């Protein structure tokens, strides 16, 4: 993760440094051009000022006065007549001769720049025409040594270099804190995932802002909680399986040894063999249900939906289960709206209702009533199994669909339950895209309701 922070820091630095260099370059060029334009404008304005005086008093005295003024200034002036003959100059000799070429009458009254190559040339220069009675009588040439411009630009460059180094330093510091700020929660998350990979799911992540990093931290925390729950559930599941398998095997082995090694009376022998058969059936049923759950978990079974006439379907269920209910002296009633159809897998639907009805029969007393009911609501079809048995304590309701969870653990063996029936029911109901709910009141009864939504029926 330190490598990531270094990579991020270098990446940010290169991006920001590139942007800063780009902006500094254009800003520098803009300021330089602006300063040169200001110098040229000031030079032109100075020449125009001299021109204005000379237009009023175009004589030797005024020319000498203008020349005298410029001889004490950082700029120089050359005044010529219309033919280009020098009338006055603030500099001895002819350093400006190359600029004093014959001029045309098309020079605007406001003047113009005749030399602006400050980088290569020794001077920048402007010209202003002198007009008397709208006729050109001469010209004012203004010159400024480019050394002063270079000095100005040099000072500007020094300021830019200083600002650049300060910006680079501050950017470097900011990027260090920024990269650490970004990578610190990532380092915490890496440590958390490493902790999870070692089987420790009690991870604690710092609170982060509501951004992508915050969402990632929440996801990791949620994953840790889910894995912790799955680990606990797996351990409980394995413990339950070992218990459920060991118990019938113990009975089978124990009574088989008794039958094999002892000389028993026919009645005792038959009793022990009956126990062995019952425990073998129980073991077979448990293994079958475990295979069912394994298929569901691996999605290796297929839901094959077809159109089911619920009235006919529920009447067939009643025919199959009535003998068992009559033996227990429990009444089974079937109620279904006429012409009610459902798209579902008939074998799986029968398995769902059989498990619910079997539970209802096991936990109901003699003389009780169990009702299988089907009806249509607005956009859904409802099936319910309702009994008037002992009910489920409120504290147990959230867990009854968990594997191997039993409400009445003391009576489980006598009732023959494995604790997997409702888990299978829940998975099969969800495989149909339906929902299952349960309402119960102790000593009053329990009702399981399956809701097939209209959209899920055709899937």
From TrEMBL:
Keywords: ATP-binding, Cell membrane, Kinase, Membrane, Nucleotide-binding, Phosphoprotein, Transferase, Transmembrane, Transmembrane helix, Two-component regulatory system. It catalyses: ATP + protein L-histidine = ADP + protein N-phospho-L-histidine. It is found in: Cell membrane. The keyword Translocase does not apply. It is an enzyme of class 2 (transferase). Its main location: membrane. Its EC number is 2.7.13.3. CDD domains: HAMP, HATPase, HisKA. GO terms for molecular function: ATP binding; phosphoprotein phosphatase activity; phosphorelay sensor kinase activity. It comes from Bacillus benzoevorans. It is a multi-pass membrane protein. Residues 180-232 form the HAMP domain. This is histidine kinase. Residues 240-456 form the Histidine kinase domain. Gene3D superfamilies: 1.10.287.130, 6.10.340.10, Histidine kinase-like ATPase, C-terminal domain. The keyword Cell membrane applies. The chain crosses the membrane at residues 6-27, 160-179. One of its GO terms (cellular component) is plasma membrane. One of its GO terms (biological process) is cellular response to phosphate starvation. Signal peptide: none annotated.
């Amino acid at each position: 993760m330190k490598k990531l922070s270094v990579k991020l820091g270098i990446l940010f630095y290169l991006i920001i440094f590139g942007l800063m260099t780009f902006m500094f370059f254009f800003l520098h060029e803009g300021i330089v051009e602006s300063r040169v334009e200001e110098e040229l404008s000031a030079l032109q304005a100075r020449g125009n000022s001299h021109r204005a005086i000379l237009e009023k008093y175009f004589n030797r005295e005024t020319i000498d006065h203008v020349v005298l003024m410029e001889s004490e200034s950082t700029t120089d002036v050359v005044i010529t007549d219309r033919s280009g003959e020098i009338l006055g100059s603030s500099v001895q000799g002819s350093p400006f001769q190359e600029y004093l070429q014959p001029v045309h009458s098309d020079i605007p009254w406001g003047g113009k720049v005749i030399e602006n190559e400050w980088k290569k040339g020794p001077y920048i220069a402007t010209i202003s025409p002198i007009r008397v009675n709208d006729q050109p009588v001469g010209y004012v040439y203004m010159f400024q040594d480019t050394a002063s411009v270079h000095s100005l630009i040099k000072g500007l460059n020094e300021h830019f270099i200083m600002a650049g180094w300060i910006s680079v330093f501050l950017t470097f510091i900011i990027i260090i804190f920024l990269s650490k700020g970004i990578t610190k929660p990532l380092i915490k998350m890496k440590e958390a995932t490493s902790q999870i990979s070692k089987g420790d799911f009690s991870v604690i992540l710092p609170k982060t802002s509501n951004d992508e990093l915050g969402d990632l931290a929440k996801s990791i925390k949620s994953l840790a909680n889910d894995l912790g729950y799955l680990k606990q559930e797996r351990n409980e599941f394995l413990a339950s399986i070992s218990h459920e398998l060991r118990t019938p095997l113990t009975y089978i082995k124990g009574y088989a040894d008794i039958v094999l090694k002892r000389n028993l009376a026919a009645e005792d022998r038959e009793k022990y063999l009956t126990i062995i058969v019952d425990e073998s059936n129980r073991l077979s049923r448990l293994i079958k249900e475990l295979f069912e759950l394994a298929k569901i978990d691996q999605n290796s079974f297929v839901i094959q939906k077809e159109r089911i006439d619920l009235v006919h379907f529920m009447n067939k269920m009643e025919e199959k289960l009535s003998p068992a209910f009559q033996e227990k002296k429990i009444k089974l009633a079937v109620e279904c709206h006429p012409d009610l159809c459902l798209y579902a897998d008939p074998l799986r639907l029968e398995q769902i209702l059989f498990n619910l009805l079997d539970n209802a029969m096991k936990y109901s007393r003699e003389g009780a009533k169990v009702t299988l009911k089907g009806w249509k609501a607005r956009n859904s079809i409802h099936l319910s199994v309702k009994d008037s048995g002992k009910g489920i304590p409120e504290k147990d309701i959230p867990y009854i669909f968990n594997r191997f969870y039993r409400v009445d653990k003391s009576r489980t063996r006598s009732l023959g339950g494995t604790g997997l029936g409702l888990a299978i029911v829940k998975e099969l109901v969800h495989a149909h895209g339906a929902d299952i709910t349960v309402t119960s009141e102790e000593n009053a009864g329990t009702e399981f309701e399956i809701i097939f939504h209209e959209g899920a029926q055709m899937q």
